[in-house]
Write a structure and sequence with these properties.
The complex is a heterodimer of chains A (110) and B (117). Chain A is mostly beta strands. Chain A has no helices and 9 strands. In chain A, 35% of the residues are buried. The chains are: A mainly beta (110), B mainly beta (117).
Chain lengths: 110, 117
């Protein structure tokens, strides 16, 4: 199972919006809504930010939103804040009854 | 509070074995699928294995099949990962993660495994 494809880095200034992509195949992202996003600040464990493509767990700000089109999922962060600086990973369930992660995107808040 | 606490990590020589444990609390352990996910130093997250709530079904990434075995003791609310024939590329932080149908929703703090001669 190959990793999902994410851009290595994205950046934005405070208050701006950024969008990061996550491209899979018809065997994972394209076939299931079991797509999720995780935030990992340096030296900490990952935290679930988005599940089922676009849903936010309790406590996650509504500045975080998710979407999906065909084999590509996206995470958008609006009103960027310094505390959003972290690595972000997407994940999907696969037709092999396994899960796969993307390589991660490093978000820099300028 | 829902909590997962991993233990059992350490240093081992190539070809050696190690057993990781994950103690769960704050939720009905037997009702949840549980995953192991690892992260090599400076690298991304990689899914390793998962097990259903009752323990009857297990799944593995291809790179650990035949070497790693996932199991659970629901009476003790504990998850295990038996790792045999360890290789240098297995060096990583190993996370125990609670699973729902749509995501991996609660993560432990991780335990570090180092495979080196």
């Amino acid at each position: 199972q190959s990793a999902l494809t994410q851009p290595p880095s994205v950046s934005g200034s405070p208050g701006q919006s950024v969008t990061m992509s996550c491209t899979g195949t018809s065997s994972d992202v394209g076939s299931y809504n079991r797509v999720s996003w995780y935030q990992q600040p340096p030296g900490t464990a990952p935290k679930l930010m988005i599940y089922e493509v676009y849903n936010r767990p309790s406590g996650v700000p509504d500045r975080f939103s998710g979407s999906k089109s065909d084999n590509t999922a996206s995470l958008t962060i609006s009103g960027l804040q310094a505390e959003d600086e972290a690595d972000y990973y997407c994940s999907s369930y696969t037709s092999s009854n396994t899960w796969v992660f993307g390589g991660g995107t490093k978000l820099t808040v300028l | 509070e829902v909590q997962l606490v991993e233990s059992g990590g350490g240093s081992v020589q190539p070809g050696g074995s190690l057993r990781l444990s994950c103690a769960a609390s704050g939720f009905t352990f037997s009702s949840f699928y549980i995953h192991w996910v690892r992260q090599a130093p400076g690298k991304g997250l990689v899914w390793v294995s998962g097990i259903t709530g009752g323990g009857s079904s297990t799944n593995y990434a291809d790179f650990v099949k035949g070497r790693f075995t996932i199991s659970r003791d629901n009476a003790k609310s504990t998850l295990y990962l038996q790792m045999n024939s360890l290789r240098a590329e297995d060096t990583a932080v190993y996370y125990c993660v609670r699973g729902t149908y749509y995501a991996l929703d609660v993560w432990g703090q991780g335990t570090t495994v180092t495979v080196s001669s």
